[in-house]
Design goal:
Helix content of chain B: under 10%
Radius of gyration of chain A: 13 Å
Order of helices and strands of chain A: EEEEEEEEEEE
Number of strands of chain A: 11
Distance between the termini of chain A: 34 Å
Shape of chain B: globular
Largest interface: A-B, 29 and 24 residues
Oligomer: heterodimer
Number of strands of chain B: 11
Structural class of chain A: mainly beta
Number of helices of chain A: 0
Largest sheet of chain B: 6 strands, mixed
Structural class of chain B: mainly beta
Strand content of chain B: over 45%
Radius of gyration of chain B: 13 Å
Largest sheet of chain A: 7 strands, mixed
Strand content of chain A: over 45%
Number of helices of chain B: 0
């Protein structure tokens, strides 16, 4: 069984378009994250949700809007895509919120290419 | 602001060698530190998690240590195998937020 799944796996689109990436976890975790890994392989946190509430919002353009319809899902919508948005986006989940030693589980990633 | 550095950026060793990957962080106020493995084009796989109160964790041929006071962690891989070739990332966790290092890309030659 897949613990953290993301769709689509690959996304190729034109500059200026709006696109969404979906994430689902079947681990019963309370906390979910979105990370961006750029071409230099640097992995940086974007957002974190705990029980559908936004708890971490790094300095991310407001073209990026996360949405958590329930505890098991955290989707990422991106408006007016730019070339610099090309990256691999990883979703992750964790059992507890701000504290605790729990392991993060990562999805397989979504490779976004903006042309 | 927490900064995480991994040295070396790349490492190539012959099969069978023991090796050490290094991770250093600037703020010792952490909940835990986690080591991940990332294969090309794949997601991250958790290898070991060390709680802030622990000094080390072991899993098979892997041993991770943590020295909070000096802001350092090491990942020791014993008897390396070609299948160990991957990028290894360390992440420091505090207040629900993970800060990742840039990773060390390991190549184990047969």
């Amino acid at each position: 069984d897949t613990a953290v799944s993301q769709t689509p796996k690959y996304l190729v689109t034109q500059m200026g378009n709006d696109k969404s990436i979906k994430c689902e976890q079947n681990l019963g975790h309370d906390t979910m994250y979105w990370y961006k890994q750029d071409s230099k392989k640097f992995l940086k946190i974007m957002f974190s949700y705990n029980n559908k509430e936004l708890i971490i919002n790094e300095t991310v353009p407001n073209r990026f809007s996360p949405k958590s319809p329930d505890k098991a899902h955290l989707n990422l919508h991106i408006n007016s895509l730019e070339l610099g948005d090309s990256a691999v986006y990883f979703c992750a989940s964790r059992e507890t919120g701000l504290a605790g030693p729990d392991t993060q589980y990562f999805g397989p990633g979504t490779r976004l290419t903006v042309l | 602001k927490q900064e995480v550095t991994q040295i070396p950026a790349a490492l190539s060793v012959p099969e069978g060698e023991n090796l050490v990957l290094n991770c250093s962080f600037t703020d010792s106020a952490i909940y835990n530190l986690q080591w991940f493995r990332q294969d090309p084009g794949k997601g991250l796989t958790s290898l070991l998690l060390i709680q802030s109160s622990q000094r080390e964790q072991t899993s098979g041929r892997l041993n991770a240590s943590l020295d909070k006071s000096s802001g350092r962690s090491t990942l020791y891989i014993a008897a390396s195998q070609p299948g160990d070739s991957a990028t290894y990332l360390c992440a420091v966790v505090y207040a629900g937020k993970s800060t990742f290092g840039d990773g060390t890309t390991l190549t184990v030659k047969p």
